[in-house]
UniProtKB/TrEMBL annotation:
PROSITE patterns referenced in this protein's UniProt entry, alphabetically: ANK_REP_REGION, ANK_REPEAT, CHROMO_2
Official protein name in the record: Chromo domain-containing protein
KW Nucleus (keyword) present: yes
ANK repeat copies, ranges: 158-190, 192-224
Disordered: region residues: 349-389
Stretches with biased composition (Polar residues): 366-380
Keyword Nucleus: yes
Keywords: ANK repeat, Nucleus
Segments forming domain Chromo: 269-298, 319-375
Entry-linked Gene3D superfamilies: 2.40.50.40, Ankyrin repeat-containing domain (1.25.40.20)
Compartment annotation: Nucleus
InterPro entries: Ankyrin_rpt, Ankyrin_rpt-contain_sf, Chromo-like_dom_sf, Chromo/chromo_shadow_dom, Chromo_domain, Heterochromatin_chromo-domain
Gene Ontology CC: nucleus
Length: 389
């Protein structure tokens, strides 16, 4: 299986700028440049049959100073930069812009990254992306706590955020840290439409998948090929060779990912009845009818109630109970209830375990109220015809 490279080293090959050692006295200039974007090399999940590989994703340049109304000078220099004091991703994750503090005293202004000297951007961004691509929790925490106006949803050339990287690397502490800092859990990148859940599923990180779901990530977001994270995991699992010792751990990981995501899909769905079954062992599935009227669906046995499976295997018929009308102690000393059904003419005596607890509770409350009313009626003094007691 070569769809996704599982090793941390391969994912961390995403382009990392070299570390910079700049003197605090170094003077930066904002240099105007031609309106084009550089190419960015990055790993992307291409499809389940191909390896992740480096690809270029050039994007159109944003409008220069669109909302700043700043006129550029005729020469190369516009102004002298003191430092970057904030960042934000452009709409749709197509690029970045930075809040520049100027040395000449002008008010800070937002400038698209294409029009800022690369060394200025690199000095600000390199620590962030290095920490993200190494899943360095301590470094990320330090940068977040620095409160330097940094956007935790900053994007690289492929529209990927730090959350996508740490999710693909399987770092649960980093995922939690970024989520608590306000990172968008459902951000889609621009090189496939992948979310953090897609990355965790594709790189076989079941622990991160579970955590993202618990944090509120939407498991139904689709990539550019209309695949949910569950679809992606199943697709990869399908083409991962069976019986190959080298792929055994990978298949186990993918199966764990699938279980986590299927649990989300079926968590709040209520089964009305089981219609059929197929397969055996880990592949055992049941065709279920949903109470909400949804289309009948094949569901793994692990996600169907044991009581429903037991009844189905015992060949019991399903019916909808309307109310409990009486109770008695059965032959074995167990409580039984007389149940009236919506689709069966005659009421039947059923053991307590076969009766909806809510219906039993309603019956007991109704019986108690009836007894209290009857007791009051029997104990009330009666008056004679003259109105005297």
């Amino acid at each position: 299986m070569e769809a996704l490279l599982p090793s941390k080293s391969s994912l961390s090959r995403l382009k990392i700028a070299p570390a910079l050692t700049l003197s605090p006295l170094f003077s930066h200039s904002l240099r105007l440049k031609p309106a084009h974007r550089p190419s960015f090399a990055a790993l992307a999940i291409q499809n389940p049959e191909k390896k992740l590989e480096e690809s270029e994703s050039p994007a159109p340049a944003p409008t220069f100073f669109q909302d700043q109304k700043v006129a550029a000078a005729d020469d190369e220099s516009f102004g002298e930069v003191d430092k970057i004091i904030g960042s934000r991703a452009l709409e749709g994750g197509t690029g970045m812009e930075y809040l520049i503090e100027w040395k000449d005293g002008h008010e800070p202004s937002w400038v698209p990254s294409d029009f800022i000297a690369k060394d200025v951007v690199a000095e600000y961004e390199t620590p962030w992306w290095t920490a993200a691509k190494k899943a360095d929790e301590a470094a990320l925490r330090g940068l977040i706590e620095a409160k330097d106006g940094r956007d935790v949803d900053a994007v690289d050339g492929d529209g990927r955020t730090a959350l996508l990287f740490v999710a693909g690397l399987g770092s649960e502490p980093c995922v939690r840290l970024l989520a608590e800092a306000g990172a968008n859990l459902n951000h889609r990148d621009n090189s496939g439409g992948f979310t953090a859940l897609h990355m965790a599923a594709g790189y076989v990180k079941p622990g991160v998948v579970k955590l993202l779901v618990e944090l509120g990530a939407d498991s139904e977001v689709e990539d550019d090929r209309r695949r949910t994270p569950l679809d992606l995991a199943k697709e990869i699992l399908k083409v991962t060779p069976k019986g190959n010792p080298m792929q055994f751990a990978r298949r186990l990981g993918l199966e764990a990912v699938v279980r986590e995501l299927e649990a989300v899909v079926y968590e709040y769905a209520e089964v009305e009845e089981i219609l059929e079954k197929r397969g055996k062992g880990n592949n055992l599935e049941y065709l279920v009818r949903w109470k909400d009227g949804g289309e009948n669906e094949w569901v793994k046995a692990a996600f169907v109630g044991e009581d429903l499976i037991g009844d189905f295997e015992a060949g019991l018929e399903y019916a909808v109970a309307e109310e409990v009308v009486a109770k008695r102690v059965g032959n074995e000393g167990k409580m039984e209830y007389l149940v009236r059904w919506t689709d069966i003419e005659d009421a039947t005596w059923e053991p307590e375990e076969n009766v909806d607890p809510d219906l039993i509770r309603e019956f007991e409350e109704s019986s108690q109220q009836g007894q209290e009313a009857n007791g009051q009626s029997q104990g009330r003094p009666r008056s004679d015809d003259n109105g005297s007691l």
